[in-house]
């Protein structure tokens, strides 16, 4: 096995595993930039995965090849609606955002498993039959060396995820909406004084995180697990959270970290087949994302600074 | 002041009530009979001696994880890493339990102590990072949970078994299992751990309410700057609080390792005991006596739910929905307080 073969095994798998993390981490960026901590990303992914699989199983016969795409849309909508609970609790009712996020995670798992048992009479769904086809990106896949590595034989949502990171960067840093979003997350009182509706901005941001978390979960379920059970999403939401922190609350950073975590995940799976990695115990690769996040936060990999107002409810008129 | 006391008591009660009502709505909406559902839940928790034994067995770790979360809360920290601390405690207890041959009077305390120590160590890093680098403990403890899960699995495979999925059972001299307790509860898995859990609740109450150190810990949690000004070592207190919280969680793991299961097996995911501990602490108002009651509530909910599929056709996951909603309602206690003040005004 030469280096190029190794890369050809690792890189597409890394992108494949990274896509759900990228979507979800971007969702986290929006929410936390507005000042709402979102520990509930895991739960939002669970809901998205559940909706994605159930929609797919229910409508595959009628909708044919459109099914997986429409399933993603359904997951986006339901994810956004589900995240409203977090928004209502943490923005309107001034709940502790961490506790509310924990409740989101619990509720998502309980509710989706309850409904799976109710609908299918067993703990997990069947495998979905209609997934995404692997595609080659036109033109780009013809580039020698890089083309086959990065742009061939992969799933469309992976490319959408990477594209979305650029879009998010543009939205957060180059548009009036993004400026307001960041203002609300850094200094809500100043933003309020300037006539920005803090509660409204935070609601929107949390719902964007719900939509993207749901999308991430659905992409994971449609492409990677292909069914839904209690273990379908196990820690991916927290890994996305880690990617967001590791990426310093910046869309591009979050994408980079998600790609890196995707690499770690792919290595823990394909590692056994790669010559110089076969003797590394998988456990090191499994814990890598979490250890790196701790190192990042401890300041070993550059200081990671959270939005100033993240975690605190905004009470009008209170200094 | 009086109405504050009353509210402290009313909010968790209302949250539980609202959770149950919401659970009934979910049951109705999905075509189940809530009366039959809750009926079989109560039967499954307290129906006969066996069920009572199982409920008490389930309550045991809940008391300890609830104490762990509450201890951190009371000292101004949010320990979401109880789950990880519990897992390493479980591993340490079983490790000591299988690898030594000692008289019971030494072996059993040693195994429990090892669990406490392991949990404490797992709480040390988040404590140190919080104290010295001001990193929020929530994120670090979440990451520590996953590290605990994967590392423990690897150790079970490589050290405690021969590439297997389960350790050997712990030696009799380190076991909490009790033929007596099992016999009076029709062979439930109830074990002596409940005594340790109750003792731990007393320890926490005594430590926080009756000692100078406890006062310091609470003071630092209440207002770091004032405590600093009063000459307390804020950093040391933050670290100590996290370490003690982790020790409680570690002992919770020992309950599972030495009592309920008597071994440790590799896990595909978390036990949930640590996360449920957050709910137990919140409902118990973060005080030791309240936690004994709320742990019993959660133990009963979890064990009773096992009876729901056969008794009323309701999936057991309904209870997880109820627990999640209870957490929501407690977290949003602002809403409940607002409602209460509305009612009080209306009554006047």
From TrEMBL, chain A:
Keywords: Cell membrane, Membrane, Transmembrane, Transmembrane helix. The chain crosses the membrane at residues 6-29, 36-57, 69-91, 98-116, 154-173, 203-222, 228-246, 258-277, 283-301. It is found in: Cell membrane. InterPro entries: ABC_transp_permease (IPR001851). Pfam families: BPD_transp_2. It is a multi-pass membrane protein. This is ABC transporter permease. It comes from Geobacillus uzenensis.
Automatic annotation (TrEMBL), chain B:
The chain crosses the membrane at residues 9-29, 35-53, 86-103, 110-132, 138-156, 190-208, 238-261, 273-301, 321-340. Coiled coil: none annotated. Keywords: Cell membrane, Membrane, Transmembrane, Transmembrane helix. It is found in: Cell membrane. It comes from the Bacteria. Pfam families: BPD_transp_2 (PF02653). The keyword Cell membrane applies. CDD domains: TM_PBP1_transp_TpRbsC_like (cd06580). It is a multi-pass membrane protein. InterPro entries: ABC_transp_permease (IPR001851). This is ABC transporter permease.
């Amino acid at each position: 096995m030469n280096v190029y073969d190794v890369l050809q095994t690792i890189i597409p798998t890394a992108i494949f595993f990274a896509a759900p993390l990228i979507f979800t981490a971007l969702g986290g960026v929006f929410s936390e930039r507005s000042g709402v901590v979102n520990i509930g990303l895991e739960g939002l992914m669970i809901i998205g995965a559940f909706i994605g699989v159930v929609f797919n199983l229910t409508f595959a016969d009628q909708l044919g090849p459109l099914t997986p795409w429409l399933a993603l849309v359904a997951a986006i909508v339901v994810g956004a609606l589900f995240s409203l609970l977090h928004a209502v609790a943490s923005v309107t009712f001034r709940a502790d955002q961490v506790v509310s996020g924990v409740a989101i995670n619990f509720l998502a798992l309980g509710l989706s498993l309850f409904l799976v048992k109710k609908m299918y009479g067993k703990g997990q769904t069947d495998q979905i039959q209609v997934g995404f086809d692997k595609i080659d990106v036109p033109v780009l896949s013809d580039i020698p060396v890089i083309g086959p590595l990065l742009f061939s034989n992969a799933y469309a949502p992976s490319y959408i995820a990477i594209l979305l990171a650029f879009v998010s960067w543009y939205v957060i840093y180059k548009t009036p909406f993004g400026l307001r979003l960041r203002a609300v997350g850094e200094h809500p009182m100043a933003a309020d004084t300037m006539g920005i509706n803090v509660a409204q901005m935070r609601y929107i941001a949390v719902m964007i995180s719900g939509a993207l978390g749901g999308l991430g979960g659905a992409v994971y379920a449609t492409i990677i697990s292909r069914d839904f059970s209690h273990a379908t999403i196990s820690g991916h939401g927290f890994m996305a959270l880690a990617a967001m922190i590791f990426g310093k609350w910046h869309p591009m950073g979050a994408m980079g970290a998600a790609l890196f975590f995707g690499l770690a995940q792919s290595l823990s799976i394909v590692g056994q087949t790669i010559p110089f990695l076969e003797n590394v115990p998988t456990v090191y690769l499994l814990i890598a994302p979490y250890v790196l996040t701790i190192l990042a936060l401890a300041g070993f990999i550059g200081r990671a600074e959270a939005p100033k107002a993240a975690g605190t409810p905004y009470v009008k008129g209170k200094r | 002041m009086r109405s504050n006391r009353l509210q402290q008591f009313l909010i968790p009660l209302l949250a539980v009530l609202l959770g149950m009502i919401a659970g009934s709505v979910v049951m109705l909406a999905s075509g189940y009979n809530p009366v039959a559902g809750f009926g079989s839940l109560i039967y499954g928790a307290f129906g006969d001696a066996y069920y009572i034994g199982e409920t008490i067995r389930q309550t045991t770790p809940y008391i300890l994880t609830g104490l762990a979360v509450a201890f951190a809360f009371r000292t101004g920290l949010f320990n979401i890493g109880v789950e990880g601390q519990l897992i390493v405690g479980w591993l340490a207890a079983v490790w000591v339990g299988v690898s030594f041959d000692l008289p019971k009077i030494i072996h059993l305390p040693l195994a429990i102590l090892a669990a406490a120590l392991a949990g404490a160590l797992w709480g040390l890093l988040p404590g140190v990072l919080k104290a010295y680098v001001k990193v929020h403990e929530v994120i670090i403890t979440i990451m520590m949970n996953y590290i605990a899960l994967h590392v423990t699995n690897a150790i079970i495979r490589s050290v405690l078994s021969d590439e297997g999925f389960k350790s050997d059972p712990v030696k009799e001299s380190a076991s909490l299992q009790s033929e007596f307790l099992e016999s009076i509860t029709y062979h439930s898995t109830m074990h002596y751990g409940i005594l340790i859990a109750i003792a731990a609740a007393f320890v926490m109450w005594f430590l926080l309410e009756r000692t100078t150190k406890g006062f310091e810990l609470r003071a630092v949690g209440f207002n770091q700057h004032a405590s600093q000004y009063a000459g307390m070592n804020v950093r040391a207190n933050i670290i100590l609080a996290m370490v003690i919280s982790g020790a409680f969680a570690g002992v919770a793991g020992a309950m599972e390792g030495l009592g309920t299961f008597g071994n440790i097996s590799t896990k595909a995911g978390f036990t949930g005991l640590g996360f449920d501990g957050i709910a137990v602490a919140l409902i118990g108002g973060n005080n030791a006596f309240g936690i004994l009651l709320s742990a019993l509530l959660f133990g009963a909910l979890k064990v009773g739910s096992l009876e729901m599929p056969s008794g009323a056709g309701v999936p057991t996951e309904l209870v997880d929905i109820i627990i999640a909603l209870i957490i929501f309602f407690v977290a949003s206690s602002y809403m409940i307080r607002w409602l209460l003040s509305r009612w009080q005004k209306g009554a006047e």
